[in-house]
Design a protein that fits this description.
The complex is a heterodimer of chains A (113) and B (110). In chain A, β5 and β6 form a beta hairpin. In chain A, strands 2, 4, 5, 6, 9, 10 and 11 form a 7-stranded mixed β-sheet that branches. In chain A, strands 1-3-8-7 form a 4-stranded antiparallel β-sheet, with no helix packed on it. Chain A is 0% helix and 53% strand. Chain A is mainly beta. Chain A has no helices and 11 strands. Chain B is mainly β. Chain B has no helices and 11 strands. In chain B, strands 2, 4, 5, 9, 10 and 11 form a 6-stranded mixed β-sheet that branches. The relative contact order of chain B is 0.34. The chains are: A mainly beta (113), B mainly beta (110). The interface between A and B is medium-sized, with 27 and 21 residues.
Chain lengths: 113, 110
Amino acid sequence: DVKVTQSSRYLVKRTGEKVFLECVQDMDHENMFWYRQDPGLGLRLIYFSYDVKMKEKGDIPEGYSVSREKKERFSLILESASTNQTSMYLCASSLFRGPKGYTFGSGTRLTVV
Amino acid sequence: KNEVEQSPQNLTAQEGEFITINCSYSVGISALHWLQQHPGGGIVSLFMLSSGKKKHGRLIATINIQEKHSSLHITASHPRDSAVYICAVKGGGGADGLTFGKGTHLIIQP
C-alpha cells in the first residue's frame, strides 16, 4: 500500500527550538508539499518541491525552510519555533504530470509552548 | 489567486439522507479534488475531477467547468460518513500546490 509517512503524530517543542518535521513517500512522486491547517483558515501551502534539491515558496513560507536531498524525503524546518507556529502540519505528494491525485500523510500536530 | 468557497460550513443530517456539499471557485483550473478528513486523522483523496462526473460507492462528484462549480453527493448517508469534506483546486502547470476551501463539517446522526 503506497503511502506518505510523517515521522511524528504529535510534537511539543519550546519557543526558540529548531524543529524538524520529516516526510517520506514511497511512490516515486516528483512533487512534495508541506501544508499547515488551522481552524477557520483551512489548509495553506508553506513550501513545495518538484525535484531533488528544488524548492518553491508557497503562500506562507515565513518562519519556515525546507530540504529535499533525496526524492523520497521532504523535510520542513522551523528555525526558531514560535507559538504562532502551533498547528497541524500535513505533507503530501503527487506525480508531476498525469491524472493521479495527491496522497496525504496523517499529519503532525505541533504545539509550541 | 483562486478563491474557493464551500457551502454549507456545517451540516447535520439523519442517517439515510441524501447529502450535497457545494464548491465554487473563481479562476479556471486544471483539476478539482474532493478530500475527506476524519477527526484527528489525515486526509484521504476521494475524487479528482477535470470534467463531468465520477462515482465511487455511495459518493458522487460532479463538476461544471463553465460555471466554476462542483458538488459532492452522498447517497444513503451513514454515521461513518461523518467527517470534514474539503474541496481543493489546482491551477495550470505540473507542480503547483492546491488551493483549499475551508471545509464542510458533516455529522450524520443515527
